[in-house]
Amino acid sequence: MTIANPSRRTLLQAGGLLLASTALPTFTLAQAAPAGGRLVVAADSEPKNLNPAIVASNGVFFIASKVVEPLAEASFDGKDGLAPRLATSWEGSADGKSVTFKLREGVKWHDGKPFTSADVAYSALAIWKPLQNLGRLVFANLETVETPDATTAVFKFSKPTPLQLIRNALPVVSSVVPKHLYEGTDIATNPANVKLVGTGPFKLTEYKPGEYYRLTRNADYWGKGEPKLDEIIFRVLPDRAGAGAALEAEEIQLAAFSAVPLTDLARISKVPGIKVISKGYEALTYQLVVEINHRRKELADVKVRQAIAHAIDRKFVVDTIFLGYAAASTGPVPKNAPEFYDASVPTYAFDTAKANALLDEAGYKKGANGTRFSLKLRPAPYFNETKQFGDYLRQALAAVGIDAQLVNADAAAHQKAVYTDHDFDLAIGPPVFRGDPAISTTILVQSGIPAGVPFSNQGGYENKELDGIIAKASETIDTAARTELYKQFQKVVATDLPLINVAEWGFITVARDTVQNVSNNPRWAVSNWSDTALKS
Amino acid sequence: MNRAIRLIRRRAISSIPVLLIVVVLTFLLLESASGDAVDAYLLSIGGGDATVAQSLRQAYGLDQSMFARLWLYVSSLARFDLGWSVAFGRPVIDLILERLPNTLLLMGSATALSFGFGSALGIVAGSKPESVRDRALSTGSLILYAIPSFWLGLVLSIIFAVQLRWLPTSGIETIASGKTGLARAMDIARHLVLPVAALALIYMALFLRVMRSGMAEVWTLDFVLFARSKGLSRFRVVLHHVARNALLPLVTMLGLQSAAMLGGSVVIESIFAIPGFGRLAQEAVGGRDAPLLMGIIVVSAVLVICVNLIIDLVYAALDPRVGASERGT
């Protein structure tokens, strides 16, 4: 025993160090988490409309998810990958035409009124289905919501709707807002879109444009002993160097969504009292994708697309552009979605010789100047990494005799050029995988999407087989059969390459050591932070 | 006094076409940029379908022709209505009034400091052209002037806010501190030290150089020779004869710089997270928010016109020849 004791202590210490260095969530401290304190967090944008029921975007959720709650939140270990929030259980009918939600009892809105099934029915029918950017798709076939009693909501669909899709979409599309504040008003301009009223652990009590949002503890929160914090301040710091400096100066305690640039992480991780955490973004995986305009004769040839895929050194992209904070992609579904991910798809190893051979085979021989043909390449300006990958891709294509002309533009101009005017040959985009392929992924390759829809197939690609799989999956009720269809989908995409998936990444959170229970769910940055605490 | 009133009246009338040209040019510039407010908005929310885009364009009036929108804007401007910001969903005038004081405070302090220290050091340098202290100050000012303001801002912030922790890294005041009165004023002053220093140091170099070269020129003039041969003390010659006459170009410079500082504040406001005018302009361009951007440009133009008017009045006071020719008209 005397021998075991010190070794066990060493192990624990080592474990503690490991926890700190790889920054796993500090589950062990959850019970001991002290109550109180003000957490100051860096925010880089101030959404015009802060209502997550209307605008289901990460920028909105980052702040609003603490105030307005969904029916269920994503979870590392919960059933179906979910943790109950406003709903305590959900069950689909055999015909796929109804889903019954049991709602939490004794929940109150921040203005003191009781939360009931009428609020859920109103949010679903008046907001999610007709107005919300993602809900329009997920709830397209929602007909009515029946409310037999105050804690039951039965969603009725006109066509069979997979429960798997509804479940996977719940954290993102199901933010419930109070009926009594919205009914009979113009929803788009309702003042509650800015002065949020929800059921969440925090109330939005103050907003100073350009400076900060102040969220204050909701004493009547349904969660026992929650929230831990007295206050969360989202401090607006638009400059990318600002968040790192403010963290070091201890003016803020947390910066999420890679507000501290990747290139600063190596340095800041050595600052005592600061931890760098790459966990907690598993359900918000961003994908680095080469979008292809299939209207270009050369790019309509699958051999050319395969050659481009072979010309890209994914390891270099991950190691040099993402500094290791990413993974190489194999197809349109990321590894972070194990429910759907299929590794057994055709892959394209980095092989310049093979790329050159494929291009020769396709009939595009090198000209006298060593060039086969020229392409217009538009990298999206939204992330440093998409811009840097543009520079890399230009060089990688030059190595196989394709001359890529880089066209850089700001966000609005890029958006119009690619998704409305189709003025591109190759574009680099960062689509997001949102828990289910049907939400934001199949739209990237499906045909028949009108011009002007951002992050969709605007490259003129059309594949009847793929369209068929997508349509079938959208009405397949059986979870196993539906999952199988999406495995087929991945195979077809990886074989025919309507677009080329290069890498997938989550963001980085940098926090002071005093912040506890960070990154303990796969959507942590955009979840409610009711158990987050500050150690003094 | 009549001279001043005439000057003001003349300026007020001539500023109307200037403002009109500014508005039309800004509108055309923003119009020629690819992508509109709806593109920018859809992007910020991570996408939406075609019907959303269409209904938004209708709601913002973006489906109307360019000329219809320009006319709508100019006619509402004539009624002193700056319109509605598309990106923020609030009246433009509210946004501007909210941000303008911060920028005026930042710019005003930076201009005053750079003018004060710049001219003082310019006098030191120019009091003995080609001396060691002149060389040192001139070289130093050149180096300062060559430094980009964003770099200087970041370095100052790293040294004084992150390393030494004497001053806050960013912001206009301590967030949610609940301070009022004098305590709040002191708090704001502390927050302004670094951004004002970053702006002022660079412009100080400019004033220093103008003052110094102006003085070098005056030294060669006959009346200086006369003053010196009269046996006046060097101190008196420097201050009363040389510096005073070299001050005029500096005042002109002040007018020009006040406009340039509005531009310089864009960068500094972003780095130091000050919710000011420059940052608002940047956000307006990114969001393709035409009404907001034009509101900002119009208010900036009015500011510049006002500053130049004041400069002219000062000039008239300093130099009796200015405006004298108008006496007869």
Quick overview of this protein structure:
Helix content of chain A is 30%, strand content 20%.
Question: Could you characterize what this model shows?
Answer:
The complex is a heterodimer of chains A (536) and B (329). Chain A has a seven-stranded mixed beta sheet with strand order 8-9-10-1-11-20-12, with helices on both faces. In chain A, strands 13, 14, 15, 16, 17, 18 and 19 form a seven-stranded mixed beta sheet that branches. Chain A has a four-stranded antiparallel beta sheet with strand order 4-5-7-6, with helices on one face. In chain A, 30% of the residues lie in helices and 20% in strands. The model of chain A is unreliable at 1-31 (pLDDT under 50). Chain A has helices spanning 4-23, 58-64, 117-131, 135-138, 163-173, 179-182, 240-248, 262-268, 302-311, 314-321, 352-361, 384-398, 411-419, 437-440, 464-475, 479-496, and strands at 38-43, 72-74, 82-84, 87-92, 98-103, 142-149, 152-157, 202-208, 212-217, 231-236, 254-255, 274-277, 285-292, 327-328, 373-379, 402-406, 426-429, 432-433, 499-505, 509-512, 515-516, 533-534. In chain A, a hairpin with a 2-residue loop joins strand 6 and strand 7 (152-157). In chain A, helix 9 (302-311) runs antiparallel to helix 11 (352-361) and helix 15 (464-475) packs antiparallel against helix 16. The mean pLDDT of chain B is 85. Chain B has helices at residues 2-32, 37-44, 50-60, 66-78, 92-126, 132-146, 149-163, 181-219, 222-229, 234-271, 277-286, 290-318. In chain B, 38% of the residues are buried. In chain B, helix 5 runs antiparallel to helix 10 (234-271) and helix 7 (149-163) packs across helix 10 (234-271). With 329 residues, chain B is mainly α. In chain B, 77% of the residues lie in helices and 0% in strands. The chains are: A alpha+beta (536), B mainly alpha (329). At the A-B interface, helix 2, strand 10, helix 7 and helix 13 of A face helix 2, helix 3, helix 5, helix 7 and helix 11 of B.
